[in-house]
Amino acid sequence: MASIKQQILSGVFYTALARYSSILISLFVTAVLARLLSPDEFGIVAIATVIINFFNLFTNIGFSAAIIQNKELTQKDLSHIYSFTLWMGLGLSVLFFASSWSIARYYHNFQLIAICQLLAVSLFFSSAAIVPNTLFFRDKNFKFIAYRTFFIQVITGLLAISAALAGAGLYTLTIQPIVSSLLIYLVSLKKYPQQIHFTSGFQSIRKIWNYSMGQFLFNLVNYFTRNLDKLLIGKYMGMNPLGYYEKSYRLMMLPLQNITYVITPVMHPILSDYQNDKERLAQAHERIIRLLAFIGFPLSTLLYFGADELVLLFFGSQWAASIPVFRILSLTVCLQLILSSSGAFYQAGNDTRNLFICGVFSATTSTIGILAGIFYFGSLEAIAWCILIAFSLNFIQCYIQLYRYTLHRPIRLFYKKLSSPLGVGILSGGALYALSLYTIHWHLLVALSVKTICCLAITACYVQCTHEYDILGKIKQLKNK
User: Fold this and answer.
1) How far apart are CA 450 and CA 255, in angstroms?
2) CA-CA to 143 of 20 to 30 Å: which in 17, 334, 367, 440?
3) What is the dihedral of CA 277, 278, 279, 283, to 10 degrees?
4) Which residues lie closer than 8 Å to 204 by C-beta, 6 or more apart?
5) 411-466 pLDDT, tens per residue?
6) Given 205, 226, 244, which residue is the final one in a domain?
7) Mean pLDDT of 77-102
8) Shared domain check, 200 and 179
9) Does the structure show a pLDDT above 70 at 388?
């Protein structure tokens, strides 16, 4: 267990070092673009992004996870798989380019034609980078990945702001995906050169096919789970409501992604080394989900009670309609944060079949919820509530299945790990509710800062007093050093 812990901590350290320093850049870029571009423009690009992500599923077909898991692939195998993804990416890019007119007609917005055609470039480079980029993760080169991500974000953020200030308008939002996919491909290929073979590469692909198909099918249903809301809101409620919804969803996902980003990419490459030791995997899982729960429950309460300050501070008063949706969606953060670790354990346990089943259940409940929110209730707030209910059901089903069929442990051990983090979430929620009554007329930044400090203080005191972690002892050790 110490070996797993040390490897994960090392990977998380280097990933977090660069990622969290880039949060400020991301917030700054988003805040600037939100003031220069309209909700309609964000909604148009959101539609194009959702559709291109669907095409992107077929360029990978679960290859990334399979390359990490399979320790017997040769360099020749990797080159054959690389060639396959290259030709597949070229074909799908042409198909996406040609589909731009149909997409624009379906959404009755012909600005989508040029946007989709431009984003077809990023689709090709994303496909071409699959093999060389995955090799960074397989070799656990997390330090290089972190710094590469940071510098690419800086470059693309500056280019996007410059374009917006120069009056590029809607096309500003295509710069970051195109340039970042190109840079990731060039950097990855330089580090891990691959040969191009003018063959299908099926012989090499056959070695990973069964594993990759389970992963691909999960990715496919997970895509619809994550994007059906945007597709249907854009079609049946309009681009303006979609812009408000998309902005609140992105703001909710920002802290979530910046936590999971430094943990989940590290987990599968490390845990795959222990794929034949289920007991060790189970113990590692329970430590990780307890840590994520102690972060997730207080974070959800802070986002819920800080919704007004966060939206108005970062995006301005013109985005006030996003506040109710953001407040509801923030309650899903704790569930999503814990769920983010489940996929790595299904993968490491060679159980992508059950991962796919979990994805099907998630897609079904989410689809029912989204359809009910749009067609029965007819409001963005209702959609957000339905998504919260769907996530709750998915959470329960996912872990019952993981513990019963993959880890072979009693589910009560999982729920036992969540009881104490849930307690601190309830305590911090009560305190923030009382505090919100006194900060209504405060300056946004002051109110948000006070709420954040209050939430952190309650969590730290709870963790120290319940002996979950000896914070004071750790501080003393650092002072003595």
Assistant:
1) 18
2) 334
3) 110
4) 73, 76, 77, 78, 80, 81
5) 888 888 888 889 899 999 999 999 988 888 888 889 999 999 999 999 888 888 87
6) 205
7) 89
8) yes
9) yes
297 with 345, same domain? yes
The pLDDT assigned to 1 comes to 43
Range of the domain at 63: 37-205
Tokens describing residue 71? 């320790």
Q: 306 and 395 share a domain?
A: yes
Q: Left if phi > 0, otherwise alpha if psi is -120 to 50, otherwise beta: which for 410?
A: beta
Residue partners of 13: CB distance under 8 A and separation at least 6:
none
pLDDT tens column, 258-313? 677 667 667 777 777 777 777 888 888 888 888 889 989 999 999 999 999 998 88
232-258 exposure pattern, b = at least 16 Cβ within 10 A, e = fewer: bbbeebebebbbbbbbbbbbbbbbbbe
Asked whether residue 189 is assigned to any structural domain, the reply reads yes
- 275/421 same-domain check: yes
* Domain identity same for 99 and 233: no
Residues 201 and 217 in one domain: no
Domain count, the chain: 2
Q: DSSP 3-state assignment of 414? A: helix
Round to whole Å and give the CA distance between 438 and 397. 40
Do 191 and 305 belong to one domain?
no
Sign of CA dihedral 462, 466, 468, 470: positive
Q: Are 242 and 234 in contact (CB under 8 A)?
A: yes
Q: By C-alpha distance, which of 350, 405, 408 is closest to 71?
A: 350
Residue 269 · residue 70 · CB < 8 Å = no
**Chain segment 139-184, per-residue pLDDT in tens:** 878 778 878 888 888 898 889 888 888 888 778 878 888 998 999 9
* Residue in 109, 110, 137, 122 with CA at minimum distance from that of residue 173: 122
In a domain, 326, yes or no: yes
Residue in this structure with the two tokens 């007093």, named with its chain if needed = 465
User: Is the torsion defined by CA of 50, 56, 60, 65 positive or negative?
Assistant: negative
**Residue 11 belongs to a domain:** no
Cα–Cα distances (Å) from 249 to 175, 268, 323, 367, 407, in that order, read: 21, 27, 10, 17, 33
Q: How far apart are CA 460 and CA 471, in angstroms?
A: 8
